[in-house]
Specification:
Elements: H1 2-17, H2 21-31, E1 46-47, E2 53-58, E3 63-65, E4 69-70, E5 77-81, E6 86-90, E7 93-94, E8 101-104, E9 113-116, E10 125-131, E11 137-146, E12 151-153, E13 158-162, E14 167-174, E15 183-187, E16 190-191, E17 201-207, E18 211-218, E19 227-233, E20 239-246, H3 268-289
Length: about 290
């Protein structure tokens, strides 16, 4: 009986001392994102970057998932979509009917980037750049897709500026992974020229990691400055505002420094002027009847 107990203790000790299979599988799964073979100055293929790459794209735009392979020799580079294990490309050939996918590979370069144009929300997920070595090596790239960036001009959609004052418009573009790019201002369909003979046209740009702010200034506003002003960022949807330049009291222009711009939305200013006119007419009518 004692010999059986000793044998049981030995078996339990042996089993407990074995490495945990479950733990090893989890560890291997996490390490798969960093697998590579070969080193510089060797004949084995290896990736220029062995870390999990995270790419953020904006829906409707073009994006490239990076993959650079050194010492490729005659081996093939393939792109696999992990969601359905679909082979997208092999070498420079595309193996999908979706023509949005293709390989960006300048001749004699180490670059084998996967280009998607345009990106959709469904494209989010992990893609693998694989090299046909033995054993096979691969580099996962995670793609996140965000909504279209949109510009916004502060204030109402329709404003009234007094003749002679300064038109000041502030456009804010919330940015994601990409910069908003160049911000262009238009009046109607004409791009504003900051060096035009009119003078007094300038813009200020402020950029932070989360937004880009473009401030447009037009000093000594005149009737000809009225129009539809559009803030058009390179990588975001445009925003617009309708500007009316109106005369001051008694139809006389007001100097820019003597009065602030009248930022009144809609037709509230016109409505108030009509009300004043009606009151004046009533007073005149009453004065005539009392004579």
């Amino acid at each position: 009986m004692s010999s059986h107990l000793a044998l049981l203790h030995f078996i339990l000790y042996f089993v407990c001392s074995l490495p945990s299979t479950r733990g090893r599988q989890v560890e291997d799964t996490s390490d798969q994102h960093q697998i590579t073979w070969g080193r510089p100055n060797s004949n084995m293929a290896y990736f220029a970057d062995t870390t999990l790459v995270n790419i953020t794209a904006v829906v409707g735009q073009q994006t490239r998932l990076p993959c650079r392979v050194h010492n490729l020799d005659k081996r093939d580079v393939s792109w696999i979509r992990q969601r359905d294990l679909h082979i997208l490309t092999v070498g420079i050939l595309t193996y999908t009917s979706d023509d949005r996918f293709q390989v960006y590979h300048p001749e004699n370069s180490d670059e084998w980037h996967l280009e998607i144009n345009p990106v959709t929300f469904r494209d989010s997920g992990i893609y693998e750049c694989q090299v046909s070595t033995s054993p096979k090596i691969f580099l996962p790239v995670r793609l996140s897709v965000e909504a279209v960036q949109q510009a916004k001009i502060q204030g109402p959609k329709e404003i009234y500026i007094q003749n002679g004052s300064t038109i000041k418009l502030t456009c804010i573009v919330s940015t994601h992974s990409e910069n908003s790019g160049t911000v262009i201002w238009y009046r109607d369909t004409t791009e504003l020229d900051y060096d035009s003979p009119r003078g007094g046209v300038s813009v200020e740009i402020e950029k932070t990691p989360s937004k880009t702010t473009s401030k447009l200034f037009l000093t000594r506003a005149v009737k000809g400055d009225s129009g539809n002003y559009t803030c058009a960022p390179e990588f975001a949807e445009a925003a617009f505002v309708l500007v009316h330049v109106v005369n001051g009291p008694s139809g006389l222009p007001i100097s820019g420094e003597e009065s602030a711009a009248v930022h009144t939305a809609g037709c509230s200013t016109v409505r108030s002027e009509v009300q004043v006119l009606v009151i004046v007419l009533l007073v005149l009518m009453l004065s005539q009847t009392t004579r």
